């Protein structure tokens, strides 16, 4: 069976260079460390919340902070990393002055689920950036994107621009390649949305969900985007976190640089689609590090239906003018 190491070695010199191999090795090592910390967190007193609030105004959990430190350490061990950007850090952190790659991450996604022992994850993206100004680029500029899912198994899902590969952590702490070319099926009767926010949905989303229910679709909502994404990779469906129509200025719930963009790259690489309405996520030009965006992704045919509903609204609005 192929290990993560042999997978990287086979691509060193072609799609990856020595520097990117080191970056990926260190990120994988960080996810192994986070996985270990999660496994025994209740025994180690790493539960509950801290009194610290991050730049998003969210209370940090001890494991948010620890995972962030572990990911930052992984960046420091990688000589080619210039900057680190994290959900848990106010601004970008300079790592190596002569570095050329920025690592952008959500160290622990779905952390509200930690104390209930539900799958959480780490999301990451690697871009070329020698100056801080290089960080704000659209998701098409991502060289690498991936996530680790910490559930009954620890999985690492990765794209280096050649499809999507899934690795599973074995008992010896080695990531083994368990799916060499993951694809998202184009159609599936399952959607993920926080239905409690129904009154904040726009018409296109409300119409799609109503139609899906009428057509016998099932609903799942883990509350960890990584876990919902992992389900979509394995059996299809769509994930929706639309903007709140009553608070359009907020942009949405999820963050573009370290949530929407890496997942968007993975989803497209697996044959799925990722949009915010009539625009694809990967084409958004970011304006700030912690920018929030609406997010809709998953099985292509389903996402295309939602995109068509948005398109109709735009055409309808233009016709009414
Ligand atoms: O609280 P809600 O509305 O269910 O939102 C859940 C969403 O928020 C997130 O937990 C945000 O991520 P963080 O835990 O990294 O802040 C997503 O993983 C998830 O899909
Ligand atoms: Mg998150
Ligand atoms: Mg997080």
TrEMBL record:
Swiss-Prot/TrEMBL GO biological process terms: fructose 1,6-bisphosphate metabolic process; fructose 6-phosphate metabolic process; fructose metabolic process; gluconeogenesis; sucrose biosynthetic process
Residue span(s) of domain Fructose-1-6-bisphosphatase class I N-terminal: 16-179
Ranges of residues in domain Fructose-1-6-bisphosphatase class 1 C-terminal: 186-310
Recorded GO CC terms: cytosol
NCBIfam families named in the record: PRK09293.1-3 (NF006779)
PANTHER family: FRUCTOSE-1,6-BISPHOSPHATASE-RELATED, SEDOHEPTULOSE-1,7-BISPHOSPHATASE, CHLOROPLASTIC
Protein name in UniProt: Fructose-1,6-bisphosphatase class 1
